[in-house]
Amino acid sequence: SEFLAYAVQQVPTINKEDVRLKYESWKVNDWSVTVNNKTRKIVNWKSTLLNTLPFLRKDESNTYTPNIVHE
Fold first, then answer.
1. pLDDT, tens digit (0-9, with 9 covering 90-100), for 25-71
2. What is the DSSP letter of 44?
3. Comparing C-alpha atoms, which of 21, 16, 14, 26 is closest to residue 54?
4. Per residue, what are the HEC states of the chain?
5. Which of 2, 20, 42, 56 is the most exposed place for a label (fewest CB within 10 A)?
6. Nearest C-alpha neighbor of 59 from the set 27, 19, 26, 22
7. What is the pLDDT of residue 55?
8. Which pLDDT does position 69 carry in this prediction?
9. Rg for the chain (alpha carbons), in Å?
């Protein structure tokens, strides 16, 4: 729950299911990520998550869209 709460705090419109799947993926892979075909341990999950959030989907239903008035 701390993982999801942190993600939503950073990007309120983040897709919560994608965040959950990312958490499960990292957990199953012993908190490791592969970058440029090299596997490395996640030392700071908050920093790694911050770098990952831009690549996760956003929930469009949570996006604020103001009413547009045409004259």
1. 999 999 999 989 999 999 999 999 999 999 999 997 755 545 555 55
2. -
3. 14
4. CHHHHHHHHHCCCECHHHHHHHHHHHHHCCCEEEECCEEEECCCHHHHHHHHHHHCCECHHHCCCCCCCCC
5. 2
6. 19
7. 96
8. 58
9. 15
